[in-house]
Amino acid sequence: MTQLRVGRAVRRTLNEKGGLRMNNAQRQRDGWSWWYLLFVIEFVAVLWPPFYNKMEPTWMGIPFFYWYQLMWVMISAVMTALVYLATRD
Fold first, then answer.
1. How far apart are CA 79 and CA 41, in angstroms?
2. How crowded is the C-beta side of 39, counted as CA atoms within 13 Å?
3. Which residues contact residue 68 at a Cβ distance below 8 angstroms, ignoring those fewer than 6 apart?
4. pLDDT digits (tens, 9 = 90+) for 8-35
5. Is residue 38 located within the same domain as residue 76?
6. Non-local CB neighbours of 42 within 8 Å, separated by 6+ positions
7. For the chain, what is the domain count?
């Protein structure tokens, strides 16, 4: 059995037939999680500009178009941290 090394960590091993074999921790990490739907929420919230392409309501004199996008920068940072913490091994 041959091991492929990336940096210091062993990422995958080759089985006798030459195919890649992953251990249980790698399978679990590479799998899909419901937490990733939070990324879809972030994406959709800023994807469609006609939704937020307006002047009112203003916040401290800043039009809605600008402060909505800046708000999502902060929300996205928090949501990304949440997904990271929820899905790390």
1. 10
2. 10
3. 52
4. 555 555 555 555 565 565 555 567 788 8
5. yes
6. 72, 75, 76, 79, 80
7. 2
